[in-house]
């Protein structure tokens, strides 16, 4: 009995002794904390407070570049650079831990600049292009600080917001901020990130925001007027990617504007003289209000595109004669394809329908009532979605919160499929889901047109036109196009008679 007790005590105590031995075995680590860049003539402060595992009799020595004389012997190093370039700081710490002496070192590279430009790019811009621009900036004596999210990205806006929040120091000291992103994702992410950094937001008063776009500059400039009111930068320039190099090479923004104008590069300026939202444009004011109060531009776009999607589907059903699962189901499917991309959305849709059908097949022998059976099917579909989202997260693909709700709503499509299969048979159900997916893909192909999106976002009042179109469709009394094919034999006999 005593041996058993001793063995148990040893097993309980061993992890504690092992943990203590692991702690004592940890070697000290030197860590330098401080900014990654600084302007010429500005004081730079670095510290070693983040160093770990230090013991007794700790001393510090700071060296700069190849200088052999320490510039500081305290836990901090203060330095004011007088010329631009790259400076390497080296920290040497001597300390004693458990009677054993250690000498540990750490280095930190600091970029000293006379001009700094922050470039925020989404994942659609290749790293090679960004590297070439950084190289050209370095040759012109300009420090180009690039911020770009890494990994597979579905929600560009959230990824940019996270990258900016983690590297908010990239904006410090920059005379301008270049947003090389699609649509409003860049300026929306900038606005979201600056909400938690009011000091950085205040610094925008002396900075210029430059938006690079391949679409209509006039429409984009009209849309960003609300952002100008909230962010309050010196000005917002909406231009083409060809203007990046002239802006980098110029001595200041005034010279850059002159150079861009001489090169005949498209440019629209948004400043205090051009800002002014007309109060009678209620939808424009509402959209600006939503964007300026943190509502995702993707969410706003989905809401604006929903009436257009419904109108396209109404035309396909009333004029063409497609037999989709109503109007609600294909609309939700189209929205999910817009939020996820049609490839990923199609995978989720197939998984939903297949899981629903398999679950219903398994439950045939259970003799359950219809409503509880559908509840079980939706539960199993939700679990399937949970597994798919977890698998996506395992390969560094994340979804926005809005997207998750779209997926959950899309799971109700399984009920529509099973209802049609029960009432009309397998063939009708497959035709229905095929036409639903086809109609949804057609809607996505239309509403994903960049020019159409920028037009709707700049002039949201245009969605009211869909009401007039639907009134006309509601008075349609002719045959559907598929009915001409379906009853062609009847028409031929009528003509013969």
> In total, how many domains does the architecture comprise?
3
Mean pLDDT: 80
What's the total helix number?
21
Radius of gyration: 31 Å
Characterize the largest beta sheet: strand count, sense, and whether it forms a barrel.
Answer: 6 strands, mixed
Structural class: alpha/beta
Percent of residues in beta strands: 15-25%
**Number of DSSP strand runs:** 12
**Secondary structure: helix percent:** 40-55%
List segments where confidence is low: pLDDT < 50 over at least 5 consecutive residues.
1-24
Characterize the overall form.
Answer: flat
How does this structure look, described?
The chain is of the alpha/beta class and 497 residues long. The chain folds into 3 domains: 76 residues, Immunoglobulin-like; 166 residues, Rossmann fold, CATH 3.40.50; 189 residues, no CATH class. The strands form 3 sheets. It has a 6-stranded mixed β-sheet, with helices on both faces. The protein has a 4-stranded mixed β-sheet with strand order 1-6-5-3, with no helix packed on it. Strands 2-4 form a two-stranded antiparallel sheet. A hairpin with a 2-residue loop joins β5 and β6. α6 crosses α18 and α12 packs across α17. The chain is flat and about 105 Å long. The N terminus is likely disordered.
